Amino acid sequence: MRNIELNGRVPDLAETQRLAAVNYGHFTSMQVRDSAVRGLALHFARLDDGNQEFFGWRPDVDDEHRLRQLIVHAMGTERDASVRVAYVPGLDPAGPPDVVVSVSDPAPDEPAAPQRVRVDPAFRRPWPEQKHSATMGLVRARRLAEAAGFDDALSVGPDGMVREGTTWNVAFYNGEQVVWPQAPMLKGVTMVLLQIAMSMGEVPWTIRPVPASELPDFTGAVAVNSRTCRQEIGSIDDLKYPASDRLAAILAETWESVPFDAL
């Protein structure tokens, strides 16, 4: 962690204790490169929705300008970083929430080795459409997967439909088009940006319900989140996907066409 600020300043001990003790709020995570972010408007829209959902508060244009200033201030002289912006309860219940900006090292440009993923039918996030602080369920799902010899967990709902990973969306490839599951889940900023860019670049894709029984029909799978657009999934349970699949390359090429927005 390079820096963390509460409302534009380093929190004191009492404030740090309050932040650690109260697990309520929502956030967005972004990769900053050369003081710019892909999909900045989508990150701000996510925060606006979270503020309405969890605090009953809708920021105005001045609040968005202040948020930009808080991010830039927390980054200091850094130009490349991983940045997390969170809204948490303030001391005044009737007032707006507090803003916590955390700055850490940028994510590696290259993804990790192909991941081994386990289907976890018990794992599903509450308020799945929101990126919120109630992360114990996803952390537990990942720990159980690791204890069983896997790298991560994939949620499949009680209806047998594929949803999302612990901290990522999943994309599949059938040899002709990219397939995104349609289910109760977080619409990740990276996923949405890729979908827009694929449409603009005329890359075939669709979003539809994906039953777990269909997983063997795909030629590849990739995890997508704020840290990477192309983390290959080598296997799901006992099902293995070939390392030569085109999906990761398609997403990488598409991602390069997504423009940056200056902070």
Number of helices: 6
CATH architecture group name of the largest domain: Alpha-Beta Barrel
Shape: globular
Distance between the termini: 20 Å
Q: How would you describe the oligomerization state of the chains in this entry?
A: single chain
CATH homologous superfamily assignment of the largest domain: D-amino Acid Aminotransferase, subunit A, domain 2
Low-confidence runs (pLDDT<50, min 5 residues)? none
The helix content is: 25-40%
Q: Give the ordered list of helices and strands.
A: EHEEHHEEEHEEEEHEEEEHE
Number of strands: 15
State which percent range the strand residues make up: 25-35%
Whole-number mean pLDDT: 96
Domains (count)? 2
Cα gyration radius (Å): 19 Å
CATH structural fold name of the largest domain: D-amino Acid Aminotransferase, Chain A, domain 2
Structural class: alpha+beta
CATH class division of the largest domain: Alpha Beta
Largest β-sheet summary: 9 strands, mixed
Protein name: Aminotransferase class IV
GO molecular function: transaminase activity
Keywords: Aminotransferase, Transferase
Pfam families: Aminotran_4
